[in-house]
From TrEMBL:
GO biological process: nucleotide-excision repair; SOS response
Intracellular or extracellular location(s): Cytoplasm
Encoding gene, per UniProt annotation: uvrC
Keyword terms: Cytoplasm, DNA damage, DNA excision, DNA repair, Excision nuclease, SOS response
Family per record: Belongs to the UvrC family.
Keyword field contains Amino-acid biosynthesis: no
Assembly and interaction partners: Interacts with UvrB in an incision complex.
Gene3D superfamilies reported in the protein's UniProt record: 5' to 3' exonuclease, C-terminal subdomain, GIY-YIG endonuclease, UvrC, RNAse H endonuclease domain
HAMAP family assigned: UvrC
UniProt-listed Pfam families: GIY-YIG (PF01541), HHH_5 (PF14520), UvrC_RNaseH (PF22920), UvrC_RNaseH_dom (PF08459)
Function: The UvrABC repair system catalyzes the recognition and processing of DNA lesions. UvrC both incises the 5' and 3' sides of the lesion. The N-terminal half is responsible for the 3' incision and the C-terminal half is responsible for the 5' incision.
Residues of the GIY-YIG domain: 12-91
The name this protein goes by in its record: UvrABC system protein C
Gene Ontology molecular function: any one: DNA binding
Length: 613
């Protein structure tokens, strides 16, 4: 069916429409109360269309549509399709970082784990945690204070004895029926939920009630336990300094824009306290026809398709689908969710504070050409969840042609700057043929065995130019040396573009790649490390190959030994320049007689080449 036939047969029902280009790629996803009227409006007189819409219409070669029952379903479906296909002409929500969440699993005896993926699997997700280290600290607190399990075994209560975690007071041991009853574990789970939801006051009051109950029944051991938990929860509440009078969950959005560039800030408030902040950036907006209403509607529907839904959302301006989105989010939350655009008072003041932060972020992102190295390294530590600040970073790359002249390049960055005196080049000795995995294993092993023997500083982070295979090979070498605590990260190239990095892979988390915003300072820093490493390896490989070619060329000339070969190479640089040199130019380095023989050797080759032509 042609596009014209599809336009004639569109239904008048609500639904989602999908525009495709000549290659069949989805370029725009939209929703409509009336599919027929909305979709056909694109192809009627385009005088009223903005430049972006006119360009979109030029590229539409096909369309699909999905009929739904109401606007709410259309909004949800549109958001899901945009996040899945990332169409070129939709406003896409792109986060500069992938912040971690804490996930409470959906099983009889839940556990809490760190994750960067939010799935519809029945589990409860909390976050995002900013900085990322806060997620690790919170998880450690949960393990120590509330003692939820950390293992992956099936819990049936039939194990004869608990593991070491129980004896370290980091697990209630539900695996042993006599040690932990299901209702006791359920109570601990409920407490953790209150903590993660930011309901510190409610949790503190509950713990205090239990403390007095067990004290009155003379169960002093449990009373002491809840006393300590009560103190811990109060301490957490005290650390959250920024407070508002509203005693509820609120997300506040603000943005700052100049032409095609925009910075968006989100402040997350829980129990009346600002507990986190996120940043989003755009560089390709339609400068002439920017629509605040359309922008906010698309951003919020995408963001809350997976993330935690607060009871209130404050935005700097109203937008067309606000009531529909409120209905969708209320159904997800199970309570009434309000989206407000405050005009005055304390709520408006907070929006202006968020907008001011958005302007600062805009300045730092788009105007400052030389980012602060400390800030870039802190961001790198955060996104990679490194246990230590990456003061020293080392990077490896392997270079060969079909296994010939197999070498490794190693570069070192200290405090964000290249330490070129620390660069090293290795000849791979034990690997035959083009086996990058084995070559990487040898290079990493030899490098850190030598550093250990010489008692020299070790890095806080290692980059490997390659994917899972190279990372695993490097990790195996580090494990042999008992250095597996040093994080290893792979620099992965996108298909068909070998001069860029598409994402990072952390050893042990290979199924959770970290994707970059290509314009971020952190991406440019990692790209600089990768380029330096690649250049170091390639240059050494070329030098080795030239030496091989040079040696083979001069082997046929009598009286040209190893010393004379090296002397010629040092002074002329390549076999091509030696071949073009005169007797007078060669004589100072090998003597007049040998110089004559070398000259005549290449002269014969030139004449032979001419006769063959």
């Amino acid at each position: 069916m042609t596009l014209e036939e599809k336009l004639k047969n569109l239904p008048t029902a609500p639904g989602v429409y999908i525009h495709k280009n000549a290659d069949g790629k989805i370029i725009y996803v939209g929703k409509a109360k009336n599919l027929k009227n909305r979709v056909r409006s694109y192809f009627q007189s385009n005088r009223g269309h903005d430049a972006k819409t006119r360009e979109l219409v030029k590229r539409i070669h096909d369309l699909e549509f999905i009929v739904v029952d109401n606007e709410v379903e259309a909004l949800v479906l549109e958001s899901n399709l945009i996040k899945k296909h990332k169409p070129r002409f939709n406003v896409l929500l792109k986060d500069d970082k992938q912040y971690p969440h804490l996930k409470m699993t959906h099983e009889p005896f839940p556990k809490v784990v760190i994750t960067r993926k939010i799935l519809r699997d029945g589990a409860s997700y909390y976050g995002p945690f900013l900085p990322a280290s806060l997620a690790r600290r919170t998880l450690d607190l949960i393990n120590r204070a509330f003692q939820l399990r950390t293992c992956d075994i099936e819990i049936d209560g039939k194990l004869p004895r608990p593991c070491l975690e129980y004896h370290l007071k980091r697990c209630l041991a539900p695996c042993v029926k006599e040690l932990c009853k299901p209702d006791e574990y359920a109570q601990a789970t409920s407490d953790v939920k209150l903590l993660l939801e930011g309901k510190n006051k409610e949790l503190a009051n509950t713990l205090q009630e239990r403390m007095w109950h067990f004290a009155e029944t003379q169960n002093y051991e449990l009373a002491a336990k809840y006393r300590d938990l009560h103190k811990t929860v109060l301490a957490i509440a005290e650390q959250q300094k920024m407070a508002m009078t509203a005693d509820r969950d609120v997300d506040m959005f603000g943005f700052y824009r100049e032409k095609k560039l925009l910075a968006l800030q989100l402040f997350t408030m829980r129990e009346g306290k600002v507990v986190g902040r996120r940043e989003f950036f755009w560089e390709d907006l339609d400068a002439e026809n920017f629509d605040v209403s359309e922008f906010l509607g698309e951003v919020l529907s995408q963001y809350y398709s997976t993330d935690y839904v607060p009871l209130e959302i404050h935005v700097p301006a109203d937008f067309a689908d606000r009531e529909t989105l409120e209905q969708v989010l209320s159904e997800r939350r199970g309570r009434k969710v309000k989206i407000l655009d405050p005009k005055r008072g304390q709520k408006r003041d907070m929006i202006e504070l968020v907008e001011n932060n958005a302007k600062i972020a805009f300045e730092q992102r788009f105007r400052i050409l030389q980012p602060d190295s400390q800030k870039v390294l802190e961001d790198l530590q955060e996104i990679l969840e490194l246990p230590y600040f990456p003061e020293r970073i080392e990077s490896f790359d392997i270079s060969n042609i079909q296994g010939a002249e197999n070498v490794a390049g190693i570069v070192v960055f200290e405090n964000g700057k290249p330490a070129r005196a620390e660069y090293r080049r290795l000849i791979i000795k034990t690997v035959e043929g083009a086996n990058d995995f084995a070559s990487m294993n040898e290079a990493v092993f030899r490098r850190y065995k030598r550093l250990l023997n010489e008692e020299k500083p070790l890095p806080q982070l290692i980059f490997i130019d390659g994917g899972k295979g190279q990372i695993s090979a490097a990790a195996a070498a580090m494990q042999t040396l008992d250095l597996e605590a040093i994080p290893i990260v792979g620099l992965v190239k996108p298909p068909k573009r070998h001069n860029e990095i598409s994402h990072l892979l952390r050893f042990g988390y290979e199924d959770s790649p970290i994707y970059f915003d290509a314009s971020s300072p952190m991406f440019r820093f990692v790209q600089q490390i990768r380029d330096e490493t690649h250049k170091t390896a390639i240059q050494y490989h070329r030098k080795r190959r030239e030496m091989r070619d040079f040696t083979s060329e001069l082997t046929a000339i009598p009286k040209v030994g190893e010393k004379r070969k090296l002397k010629l190479l040092r002074n002329f640089g390549s076999i091509e320049r030696i071949a073009k040199a005169t007797v007078e130019e060669l004589s100072p380095f090998v003597g007049a007689k040998t110089a004559r023989e070398i000259f005549e050797h290449f002269e014969k080759q030139r004449k032979l080449s001419i006769s063959n032509d």
